[in-house]
Specification:
This protein has 22 helices and eight strands. The chain is mainly α. Among the domains are: 145 residues, no CATH class; 128 residues, no CATH class; 68 residues, Homeodomain-like (Arc Repressor Mutant, subunit A). Helix 1 packs across helix 15, helix 1 packs across helix 18 and helix 20 crosses helix 21.
Length: 504
């Protein structure tokens, strides 16, 4: 085997985005909440960036003399000192307020704490402080209890030996967020015995499971969906014997609306079966779901639509809560007057970074306003008449009108919301494909879905419209679609088939 070593020249072209371009794209993609967070971060990290005080037209409080640092070591110390500060540069009011807070802390600080003078607080003061702290702790909102914690608390009141108690706690930890067993009881029992060196039989495991299944909320500890419902059926439920039969033997028939088949198998009348189904619908198929911690998603619109004097819809950016930024005059003077080259280089980099951010925010403002205005102009019928009149729209159309790349439009509308006379909508809501009517008019898929829902809402419930019949009804309105398209949309809208929709 021979190895040949040789050199070759290869030419290639690579497209690299400048850091400034990357930052502009990142800023454009941020919604207003995220933009505020980004600005707060930049204000902390870049001391040459500051917020314009709109309340008063006064120059920032700055020293008349410019700090001069000739020695490089002193320049490095200055840079460390400046980078570690989180106060707004040149703002004496903020400095004074911070100093006042330190004085207040010092006044209340115990005598034996290093760095603060003053007398030790009296026992009455300490008692009052402890009472205030206790009241504050008592008034704090407690962390919501999880499903597992709630079950473990109840299980602790049941008397059983150590092995059974340990297995019960182990079993509770193997329930999913709905309260259902994640594995078979035999598998959990086997794993428990192997992990803890116990010898519980499957009968022992069944006994412990029955205890857990009697805990609140009803339905926890079930092995499947059917058992979860059966655990909630008790003597207090109307027609509980009928409900038990329906759950145990006919859940699939109920799902497919096969009531005559249930009637034939049970001898129950159709009316009695319908009453039983109504009782089943009062049961909770997900008993543990109420313990889930779902964060509340707060939506803040970035834009609003208003009519001007001519009746045209005009887009306005809701940027009242976005602070206006500027480059600190103090550091601009230091950039010109400081004799230290190292200090000037450091300030220059910070000033350049601040300028890029300010320009990126301004560019975001202009791009977002232009894109949103084009969207609103295209969707005037939607704003005038409602969702049924939304027009087909592709991002490429907006990109062509604004004169930007389609990816710029995609970033501009990403996670942005707009307040309209019709309500609050994500900007992406106004994009979508469509088809043409027999007269050649464009109609959006959203409009077709609305018409489909209207046909089903108004159908004869004892003789629902089949997918073929829905095709015919839409055809009468000039919309020609294949049956498979209707079936696809019906399933996407979670609308059952005509057989399942039939009411007896």
């Amino acid at each position: 085997m021979h190895l040949n070593i040789s050199q070759q020249m290869k030419m290639s072209q690579q497209m690299k985005l400048a850091p400034r371009m990357i930052q502009s794209m990142e800023i454009l993609q941020l919604n207003m909440m995220a933009l505020n967070e980004r600005i707060e971060q930049e204000l902390v990290e870049n001391v040459t960036l500051e917020v314009v005080n709109k309340d008063r037209d006064l120059p920032s409080a700055e020293p008349d003399t410019v700090t001069q640092v000739d020695d490089p070591r002193e320049a490095r110390e200055l840079r460390k000192d400046v980078e570690s500060r989180e106060l707004v540069a040149g703002n004496e009011k903020n400095n004074e307020s911070d100093f006042e807070r330190l004085v207040e802390i010092a006044a209340e600080w115990p005598e034996d704490n290093v760095g603060f003078g003053g007398s030790r607080p009296s026992s009455n003061q300490v008692s009052d402080d402890m009472d205030r702290h206790s009241d504050a702790m008592a008034n704090m909102v407690a962390r919501p209890q999880s499903l597992h914690e709630y079950l473990l608390e109840q299980f602790s009141f049941h008397s059983c030996d150590d092995a059974h108690r340990q297995f019960g706690e182990y079993l509770i930890q193997h329930l999913d967020h709905n309260g259902r067993l994640q594995s078979t009881l035999a598998e959990i029992n086997q794993q428990f015995n192997r992990t803890y060196g116990q010898g519980l039989t499957i009968e022992d495991a069944e006994g412990v499971l029955k205890i857990i299944q009697r805990l609140d909320p009803p339905g926890v500890g079930a092995r499947d969906h059917r058992e979860m419902l059966l655990l909630q059926v008790d003597d207090h439920l109307a027609f509980h014997d009928v409900v038990e039969v329906l759950i145990r033997d006919h859940l699939e028939d109920i799902a497919f609306n096969r009531l005559p088949l249930i009637q034939k198998a049970t001898g129950y009348s159709i009316d009695l079966i319908k009453v039983g189904i109504e009782q089943i619908q009062t049961l909770n198929p997900y008993p543990g779901r109420g313990f889930e911690q779902r964060p509340v998603q707060r939506v803040t619109p970035d834009l609003a639509v208003e009519r001007d004097d001519t009746g045209r819809y005009v887009v306005r950016l809701l940027d009242e809560y976005v602070p206006e930024l500027r480059i600190s005059p103090r550091y601009q003077r230091m950039l010109k007057d400081n004799p230290s080259q190292e200090t000037r280089d450091w300030i220059r980099r910070k000033v350049e970074s601040a300028r890029w951010l300010i320009e990126s925010i301004e560019q975001r403002y202009n791009t977002l306003r232009k894109v949103a205005q084009e969207i609103v102009d295209h969707q005037q019928e939607f704003l005038d008449k409602g969702p049924e009149f939304i027009a087909p729209l592709k991002m490429q159309q907006i990109a062509d009108r604004v004169g930007v790349h389609v990816t710029t439009v995609s970033r501009a509308v990403d996670e942005k919301w707009i307040q309209t006379p019709r309500g609050l909508f994500p900007l992406k809501r106004f994009f979508g494909g469509g088809t043409q009517t027999a007269e050649g008019e464009d109609v959006a898929w959203d409009t077709i879905r609305i018409k489909l829902q209207e046909l089903i809402d108004n159908e004869d419930k004892s003789n629902p419209l089949s997918d073929d019949a829905l095709v015919d009804e839409l055809g009468k309105q000039g919309i020609t679609l294949a049956r498979r398209t209707i079936t696809k949309y019906r399933k996407q809208m979670m609308i059952p088939s005509s057989r399942q929709r039939r009411e007896y």
